[in-house]
Design a protein that fits this description.
The chain has about 210 residues and is an alpha/beta fold. It is about 35% helix and about 15% strand. InterPro entries: Ribosomal_uL4, Ribosomal_uL4-like, Ribosomal_uL4_dom_sf.
Length: about 210
């Protein structure tokens, strides 16, 4: 499978041959949806927490004696019936939203999304990606000359390139990942995938097992 290759100034170069076992996989939308939902659940942070009657303050003493007052009996001010008491069946930090996805399923779904990027023309192959110095404007200039323009994109790097990562950090619609860490959710959340040629080998070695 051949696809267009660009340099950093947006010029088309000779086409690059992509491994068909990675970039030519038949789509199964049900599997991709299942993996994407699982990844969203696994990223979910549990922040809402209400205190039950064992966590709220007070309640060590019985409010009034059991009999003879004419009022209803109560044993603690921490009862959910009282203002300032515990909350019954409220959300707690102990909730677990984790979903398990088999490694083979996750890998297969990733290959399907990568293949869809090729078929839709939203995969951009670069001969190389180098930033002279850590500067956001330099990265913005590179992206403005590529087909992605100002649209959302994910840059897959062959290794940890701190200059590229830091230069892209302040660009609103740009994400960076190492090629070995690509995942379905990030690919679905961005329209374009930018892959330097040296990262193709990393993708093949990581996901073609």
């Amino acid at each position: 499978m051949l696809t267009k290759t660009y340099n950093q100034i947006g010029e088309e170069l000779a086409q690059t041959r992509l491994p068909s076992e990675i970039f030519d996989v038949k789509m199964d939308t049900d599997l991709v949806h299942q993996v994407a939902v699982a990844q969203m659940s696994n990223r979910r942070q549990v922040s809402a927490h209400t205190k039950d009657r064992g966590e709220v303050r007070g309640g060590g003493k019985k409010p009034w004696r059991q009999k003879g007052t004419g009022r209803a009996r109560h044993g603690s001010r921490r009862s959910p019936l009282w203002k300032g008491g515990g909350v019954t069946f409220g959300p707690t930090k102990e909730r677990n939203f984790k979903k398990k996805i088999n490694q083979k399923m996750g890998r297969k779904a990733l290959l399907m999304v990568l293949s869809a990027k090729v078929k839709s023309g939203t995969l951009i192959i670069l001969d190389s990606l180098k930033i002279e110095k850590l500067k956001t404007k330099l990265m913005a200039d590179v992206l403005s000359k590529l087909p992605c323009k100002e649209q959302s994109c994910l840059i897959a790097l062959s290794s940890m390139d701190k200059d590229v990562i830091a230069s892209a950090r302040n660009l609103a619609k740009v994400q960076t990942r190492q090629a070995k860490d690509l995942n379905v959710l990030d690919l679905l959340n961005t329209k374009y995938l930018i892959v330097p040629k040296d990262a193709i080998k990393v993708i093949k070695e990581t996901f073609s097992k």
